[in-house]
Design a protein that fits this description.
The protein has 110 residues and is an alpha+beta fold. It has two domains: 69 residues, Arc Repressor Mutant, subunit A, CATH 1.10.10; 36 residues. It is built from five helices and three strands. Strands 1-3-2 form a three-stranded antiparallel sheet. Strand 2 and strand 3 form a beta hairpin. Helix 1 packs antiparallel against helix 4 and helix 2 crosses helix 4. The protein is elongated.
Length: 110
């Protein structure tokens, strides 16, 4: 659950979601990512660290440059958690609906 918590925390910040969009299909250097935002490079670096800690980014060094790309499987655990939660919610809704239908039949028969 700790990874899911870090993932949700990381995704809660709009700039971090935008960083993930930027590196979803292209590997970009930290400076290229920072250029897309009106915040300091230090702030972008902190966002990158949060995303890496949540296993949402891969970092690769190329000389002095650090290159970032979204991890394709970075959201897998969160996706699994949400799928399980959604399935449970649907099951509860189904049981409630079936219970209401059964109650209605009892009322009609009575």
């Amino acid at each position: 659950m700790e990874l899911i918590d870090r993932t949700l925390k990381a995704l809660a910040e709009p700039r971090r979601r935008e960083i993930l969009r930027l590196v979803a299909h292209d590997e970009l250097a930290a400076g290229e990512i920072a250029a897309a935002f009106d915040v300091s490079r230090t702030a972008v670096s902190q966002h990158l660290t949060v995303l890496k800690d949540a296993d949402l980014l891969d970092e690769r060094r190329d000389g002095t440059r650090r290159l970032y790309r979204a991890r394709p499987d970075g959201l897998a655990e969160l996706r699994h958690f949400l799928d399980d939660m959604w399935a449970s919610s649907l099951d509860v809704a189904r049981r409630l609906a079936e219970g209401s239908a059964a109650d209605e039949e009892v009322r009609r028969a009575g």
